Amino acid sequence: MGHAPVQEPVQESVEQAMTTHSGLAAWVEEIAKLTQPDTIHWVDGSEREYAELADELVASGTFTRVNPELFPNSFAAFSDPVDVARVEGRTFICSEKQRDAGFTNNWMEPSKMKEILDDRFAGSMRGRTMYVIPFVMGPLDAPDPKYGVEITDSAYVVTSMRIMARIGTDVLRQMELSNAFFVPALHSVGAPLAPGEKDVAWPCNEEKWIVHFPEERSIFSYGSGYGGNALLGKKCFALRIASVMARDEGWLAEHMLILKLISPENRSYHVAAAFPSACGKTNLALLEPTIPGWKAETLGDDINWMRFGKEGELRAVNPEAGLFGVAPGTGWSTNPNAMAAIAKGNSIFTNVALTDDGGVWWEGMTEEVPAHLTDWQGNSWTPDSGRPAAHPNSRFCTPIDQVDMLSSEYYAPEGVEINAILFGGRRKTTVPLVTQARDWTHGIFMGSTLSSETTAAATGAVGVVRRDPMAMLPFIGYDAGDYLKHWIDLSAQANQARLPKIFLVNWFRRTSSGGFAWPGFGENSRVLKWVVERLEGTADAVETPIGFTPAPGSLDLSGLEVSASDMADALKVDPAEWEQELQGIEQWYARFGDSLPADMAAELEDLKQRFAA
Ligand code: GTP
Ligand code: SPV
Ligand code: MN
């Protein structure tokens, strides 16, 4: 590697060989030589280590200890204003051939990218500690555990990874037994310290690189300390790299929640739902049903790994161990289950506001707005400040086992059988509250043409409608057309009678006066009830050109105060809106070029025909 001259062995622990895993030992040594940290810390994942790191983060000003009487063992961090969300424009899939990255990804020739990365990482950890975090995505007792090792110079990343994934010595020891393959994931905030230089509270670099080498199954992240840019087990591994593994090994890595529903008759169903970032997955995953007799249990809120089981049934596992949820809008009235999990403590909050009694607050947490706060940028804030107190992409990071409604099946390596898949987006117009696909292939078409208004979860403009296939636009680690083909081909393995039914949903449609047509949140249980009754064959539907929508009276609205005109707005299929939508879909499909599967082109033709008829 052409960069800074190689110095003395960085420090003793390299030589002490903290692992018998030869590949890992060699990689750690190589990275230490490259990045030149002061010390190396092998993360054991213990509570004691977490407490020590948290104390150090408090001392360095990265963490503010939250009032333990309000949120025990919890901390608040405030990022640099240039580092508040995923950076899609700086995210790359460096496959050997550009064609294999497809039109949805940034690409650079791998050897050229490696030169850039070598240059940026050279000496990037000077003055800092290099942490080595062994982790596994999914249960450690899975038949084929998916290991990774993140090397990072951020203690904030270590503490967050301990919440979000299974990490530490147990994982390392098991990896060593078989000298197992692991995904190497290198992260640096890109802010080396000169001798004696004082650190800042949130070190980062204005230049950011989030890079994946899919054939090598490796990840390099430089310059950001935030969320999906830095917690590399999450989007980088469990979606971008895992989607490539899934293509090669015959499974699916999806941006989906997993929810169990139990009917009043005690029948159980499992639903997976793909919504783009900040479009309602965590909220639906922690649903508090408003209809009597129905119960819900959580399995996952962001990532879902699915494969066909022995009987041709589709089985789902959540590879994560925590929630990294959007704070604004999460409140005692909208999402009491999330709030109860957060209130148990053991959480890291990023870019929320602080109350005068040392608690945290964000827009929508309570109906009453505090008279005074310290906003996420450290400024004094009052309700008439005219700006949000918490950043719109502020987050809570909380262990999933603090969710009271967590299903015991969350721990099962074999996962749960999925009965229904929902695709959904944030659309003010056009897309009805719920539409059932005509069949599996039509359902894939619905997923492939999913659209949503952009949110604060990624940097860039907010509120712009874009196509987001299966809510995976920023996360497909290979060619988008090949990805659709993989969905189509994989279902050949299915027991056709047990294929999940597919639905398109939209909680975000507006009425002509601008408000939400549908109350959402817990009331979404009414839509899920209709979905279940469609599975059972008991709910009536109207056939429309875009699929089956609820027949009048088939959606349970008992006890709900929603006007007939709002309901009509929520459910309507407006041919004028769809004329525009069809043009949008055509333009979208044109971008796939040759890689658009013929089945999808045929679905579009059929849809146009149904509107013309
Ligand atoms: P990521 O973690 O970024 O992948 O987001 P997510 O899909 O888990 O979204 P989340 O559930 O955190 O919701 C994002 C925002 O949408 C929050 O501000 C919620 O309050 C809001 N939201 C969620 N569900 C509903 C709903 O049914 N109706 C309305 N109006 N808003 C909702
Ligand atoms: C998303 O953006 O979809 C998230 C947050 O879940 S992040 O971890 O930053 O990707
Ligand atoms: Mn997400």
UniProtKB/TrEMBL annotation:
| Keyword tags | Cytoplasm, Decarboxylase, Gluconeogenesis, GTP-binding, Kinase, Lyase, Manganese, Metal-binding, Nucleotide-binding, Pyruvate, Transferase
Binding of substrate occurs at R86, Y226, G227, G228, S277, N393, S394, R395
The UniProt record lists the keyword Secreted: no
Any Gene Ontology CC annotation: cytosol
- Which class of enzymes does this protein belong to? lyase
For this protein, the Enzyme Commission number is 4.1.1.32
Q: Which residues form the Phosphoenolpyruvate carboxykinase GTP-utilising N-terminal domain?
A: 27-247
Enumerate the residues binding GTP. Answer: A278, C279, G280, K281, T282, N283, R395, R426, F521, G522, E523, N524
- Binding residues for Mn(2+): K235, H255, D302
Where it mainly occurs, coarsely classed, is cytoplasm
On the tree of life, the source organism's domain of life is Bacteria
Task: State a single Gene Ontology molecular function.
Answer: kinase activity
Pfam families, per database record = PEPCK_GTP, PEPCK_N
Reaction(s) catalysed by this chain's protein: oxaloacetate + GTP = phosphoenolpyruvate + GDP + CO2
Task: Explain the purpose of this protein.
Answer: Catalyzes the conversion of oxaloacetate (OAA) to phosphoenolpyruvate (PEP), the rate-limiting step in the metabolic pathway that produces glucose from lactate and other precursors derived from the citric acid cycle.
Q: Which family does this protein fall into?
A: Belongs to the phosphoenolpyruvate carboxykinase [GTP] family.
Q: What NCBIfam families does the annotation carry?
A: PRK04210.1
Name the chain's protein.
Phosphoenolpyruvate carboxykinase [GTP]
Taxonomy, top ranks, is: Bacteria, Bacillati, Actinomycetota, Actinomycetes, Micrococcales
